[in-house]
Specification:
Strand content: 25-35%
Shape: globular
Order of helices and strands: EHEHEEEHHHHHHEEEEEEEEEHHH
Strand order of the largest sheet: 4-5-10-6-7
Amino acid sequence: MIPFDWEEPETLKEAVALLDPDDPTIRPIAGGTALMLMMKAGVFTPSLLVSLAKIESRYSEIRVDSAGALRIGAMASLSQLEQSTEAMARFPVMRRALRTLSNVRVRNVARVGGALAHGDPHMDLPPLLAALGAKVSVTGQKGTREIAVEDLYAGYYETTLEKNELIAGAIVPPLNGAKTVYMKVTSRSADDWPALNIGVHLKLDGPGHIREARVVVSAATEKVTRLKETERLLVSAGVSDALLRQAGDVATGEVSFLSDAHGSAAYKRELLRIYLARVVREALS
């Protein structure tokens, strides 16, 4: 690798100050599981890496606030989230998802903030948190703001973050009785990169009657994508096999599918058609 400079600020504010929006060769680094691979492959050659390893310890904490929301510090590792008894008890959908999120070696190193900021549509955490209606807290040189996870992505490896902004944490609202199911569909091993990620979040008025719906997909698409037309259809009538078939058709018409090493666009289209019905049925059960 080409030599580069290394800074280890001790506060998030200092880290943000080191970022230059006009210099794309300056990057923050958290766990580095993705960034180091890009550097080794020669895809990215930094002039300066700003390590977040020494910033305030509160950015590594996971806690539930007084309103019941889960607050995850950006520097918490994926393993730390997986092992959080409080988080897993309140959001059991996370336990299932995190078990197949890459492998334990990566989960021990990768950080929540990096997994959200990287912008790779194949990653599990963004669609999972988007399905749960989560937001990220972002800190920049102009102050702080919150962005819904579903609005964090602009395209393939593109986010809506400014070049001098960092994710400080994620806020997941309480379920309050809602049903959430997330499925990762792979063409090889369970922890491999997916051909499709799909999550649904349903609030029910009774058996088979959906009051509110949130449907999110990625991996088959160039970014995390919310299927709003499909959501409107799901709340328009009682759930039936015919409605779910229609919802599958609507869903496949809402997105542009991405062909890659994990499946063709046509294959992913059929995956979405099939798995939409599966996740809805599982949430209703």
